[in-house]
Amino acid sequence: MRAERIEPGPGQESVWDYPRPPHAERTTKHIRVMLAGVTVADTNRSVKVMETSHPPTYYIPHEDVAHGVLSPAARSTVCEFKGRAVYHHVTAGGVERRNAAWSYPDPLDPYGEIAGHIAFYPSMMDECSVDGEPVIPQPGDFYGGWVTSDVVGPFKGGPGTLGW
Prior knowledge:
mainly beta; Metal Binding Protein, Guanine Nucleotide Exchange Factor, Chain A; four-stranded antiparallel β-sheet; 15 strands; 0% helix; 47% strand; globular
């Protein structure tokens, strides 16, 4: 049984109002990813993916990811909606985080706009931010949602929530 939906306040959205299957939309919010004092990614042209019970995930254009910080990982997974994801190790400032980012090289319709974009697990980076606000990582180690003050839950991912 899931916890009760939190009613959003002014300027907030509830993840329980997000659709399933997920919805992807372009955003001009300032998205920044930091590791070991290095800006790994910085953009105002990401794709925000929203799915019921999950905080948004931001997919950053590959061109807005620092050169040389990504290396291919052997891991891959399949999303029933978006298709096959491939993973990337992220290295910056002498620090490597394994399987810390992922992408969909050939996403299923209607998610074509995330092709050529990279998503990062905020829990594996030193800081991720949206419009300057530091992100709280979505609970759990499977999902990569970005929790900010404009998003309310409860959020799937923590103990006891996988059946939601």
